Amino acid sequence: MSASFNPPDLSRFRRLAAIVGGVGMVLLLIGAVIVDRKQFFQAYIVGFAFWAGIAVGSLALLMLQHLTGGGWGLVIRRVLEASTRTLPMVVLLFIPIIIGASSLYEWTNKEALEEHPVVKGKTPYLNLPFFSVRAVIYLGIWFVLAFFLNKWSLEQDRTGDRRLAKNMRLLSGPGMVLLIFSVTFAAIDWFMSLEPEWSSTIYGFIFVASWSLSALAFTIAVMANLSKEEPMNRIVAPLHFHDLGKLLLALVMLWAYFAFSQFLIIWSGNLPEEIHWYLVRMHGAWGVIIITVAILHFFAPFLFLLSRNLKRNPHKLVIIAGLVLVMRVIDLWWMLVPAFSREHFPLASFWMFVVSPLAVGGLWLAYFFWELSKRSLIPINDPQFESVLEQQHSSGH
Q1: Burial track 170-201 (b if 16+ CB lie within 10 A, e otherwise)
Q2: How far apart are CA 105 and CA 127, in angstroms?
Q3: How far apart are CA 170 and CA 165, in angstroms?
Q4: What is the pLDDT of residues 346-390, one digit of tens each?
Q5: Which element (helix H / strand E) includes 306?
């Protein structure tokens, strides 16, 4: 491993992230004591959903890169791997959801089950022991996939053994299938069951697309900053960002397709037990929020990412990536918070839902920067390294 490919000093970012995370968690705990214990857990799950999505979405992109190859994936592989190595923290971050399950999920309350016979009929599936076992399975699948992909990638750096690239590719095929299924069921268990009387067959796929989108937007933001200095300013070419911008556009469109398809199917069916989910989210402040999401999460990124020059300019592309990340948090508010507030916007306690992504994110980012600093930023012994970078630089500058 060449020392020149070591990452820059990230300790300052790590300290800042840890401070933000620590202060945020203290504020949330104060809110739990002063405001409401239930709302602590309700706010917490929003932060968890966002940052766990970046870790798991990065795993999806990492496997996609091993399956397809290309320079776009080669230059971001180390960032994706560092994100996937935060999965042990995701496991720890999931523990409060188990602890606070009674504050989050109606189906844990026996009295509520008696009042809702439809939900009571789902108790063979929706019960806390089985819920916990399934969570262990989902998290276990993601952890095992990330473990082997990172292990073989590190061995490849040390030995240059070409068989390791084949191993990573062979694992990524079935691994991608496992990931899609596990994310789909995790989304149903953790988020859709917040409103257990309602169901949607597309709901899980919305999270598959949105978590991949969050991960890519986050990776672009990290790469845009890393490319300003050594060693990445010698490696990353405009065409790399152009490819990442095209993939970002594709994922924005995929997310919009799934989200709009769910709305169209439910609205055209016009069944009372299904449309209530949207009726709550289309009036008052929630109605304003979904219009904002439609404009800034789809139309604006879609139009801007059509520009070839914007996609090749990291300073402009990072603005779109940042916008997507902000809108992902707002979209999660829109999807999850009405499950707790029902007919009204929780104005007095909404600050907790704002602090939660910052608190969880600070802790997650501190761990991410620590992982990113542990390895070379470029997999220099990858079989594609020389040919891909030579090709990309010749066409990228």
Answers
A1: ebbeebbebbeebbbbbbbbbbbbbbbebebe
A2: 10
A3: 9
A4: 887 899 999 999 999 999 999 999 999 998 888 878 777 776 666
A5: none
What range does the domain containing 156 cover?
3-396
Nearest Cα to Cα of residue 65 among 52, 43, 84: 84
Q: State residue 389's pLDDT score.
A: 62
Residue 233 carries which DSSP code?
G
Here the tokens at position 335 are 């999807």
CA atoms within 13 A on the CB side of 93: 29
Are the C-beta atoms of 246 and 222 separated by less than 8 Å? no
What distances in angstroms separate CA 18 from CA 120, 368, 373, one per listed residue?
Answer: 42, 11, 15
Give exposure, 16-33, as e/b (b: 16+ Cβ within 10 Å): ebbebbeebbebbeebbe
Domain count, the chain: 1
Q: pLDDT tens digits for 292-331? A: 999 999 999 999 999 999 999 999 999 999 999 999 999 9
Q: Which has the closest alpha carbon to 2: 283, 376, 326, 258?
A: 376
Q: Is the distance from CB of 81 to CB of 250 less than 8 angstroms?
A: no
User: Identity (one letter) of the amino acid at 154?
Assistant: L
